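Folds vary. Our protein:
___
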Amino acid sequence: MKTTIYDIAKAAGVSIATVSKVINGTGRISTDTRERVHEIMQELDYQPSVVASALTGKSTFTIGLLIPDLANPLYAEIARSVEDRGRELGFNLVMCSTDNNPRREGDYITFLKQKKVDGIIISTGISNEAVLQSLHTQNIPVAFVTRDHIPGMDADSVRVDDYLGGYRAASHLLGLGHRHVAVLTEQLSLSSSSDRVRGFIHALEEAGIEEGGPVVVESFSSIEEGRRQTLELLISEDAPTALFACNDLLAIGAVQAAKELRLTIPWDVSIIGFDNTMLAGIVDPPLTTISQPIAEMGRRVMDLIIQEVRGEKKGKTAIVLTPELVVRQSTTFPRKV
């Protein structure tokens, strides 16, 4: 026979109302009592009805997460951090990988609304204001991570200072003596990409490198696209001495292209990435990159949205974290300027 809330209350020696408050995270319940009730729930394998909770307007203890690509280590690491923090706070996670496809984004948001999730964390390039407005109209909490919120939409956000990250990447290459550089970026329609490129160019302009500016190549975010685009850059007559890739996947593709052309990294070409995912330290040579505090971003965005779900905060919060340069073995001074 299925365990009920009455069984939990009897075994724990508390009232049904106390068990209900523990399940819903409400009321002033002592830590000892709360832990005792949770222990009994585990011992008796009690599973609260998510559907019943949703139908009565209560929390389903579920958060949705929209990410562009789970195969990208950045988003895999973000998702893991979000999920771990959610479990600490008693919430489950539903992940949806959208490929930054507007139709898939809309379909997944519809799906998450049907599942009665308590809130949605968005890490994609979604810009469909009608879809986002529907979440606002239905009072579904929304928070953004790795990107800023949509202009005109009141929502929490956690991101790194992408402009500063691009600036620091250029400053590093300039400090090594590079003057002829190129940039490999995701679509510039993504605010994170455009900010990184703007910061990079600003540092070059401050150094007096204005004429022509760097070659900026837009690409889909994959190792193969990074390889393909870098091959074209490096076989040109005006090949750069250094390349800034706006994420680590593109940077690793650039490393593959250089090796394919039998170029030595960093002596023939320096390569710097962005993100500092787990791949950056194991690629050969280890990748110089701009580090995002990935785990912190995941934890903080989950904290924000759960505070919103529980009605514990007033107003919206925009958290901007500082990127750091991590120097490894893929950058050095140029053989010729």
